[in-house]
Amino acid sequence: MLKSKTRQADWRRANMVKYNAHLAVQQALNSGTLDKQPCEVCGRTVVDAHHDHYDQPLNVRWLCRRHHVKLHQGGEDMFPIRRR
Ligand SMILES: [Zn+2]
Ligand SMILES: [Zn+2]
Predict the structure, then answer these.
(1) Counting ligands in written order, which one lies closest to the CA of residue 73?
(2) Domain count, the chain
(3) Residue 1 CA to ligand 2 centre (angstroms)
(4) Is 83 among the domain residues?
(5) pTM, full prediction
(6) DSSP letter string over 24-81?
């Protein structure tokens, strides 16, 4: 009982962090702080923000839905982070 409670709290915390990160991206997009970029793999312009680190909410990578799903299925190392 204690265990499942802790797990639920962990789950909620993890999801709050994700939720807050996505919210921060939306707000930054709306305010012009952040610009959408084409998919870093194929260049499509319909993109999702992907977080490598949810504790850095505005440090995102832009991926189209297909490559975003693929990245999550293949693991984070599938598309190495491009050096800028
Ligand atoms: Zn793509
Ligand atoms: Zn992602």
Answers:
(1) 2
(2) 1
(3) 32
(4) no
(5) 0.76
(6) HHHHHHHHTSS-----TTT--SSEEEEES-TTSTT-EEEEEHHHHHHHHHH-TTSSPP
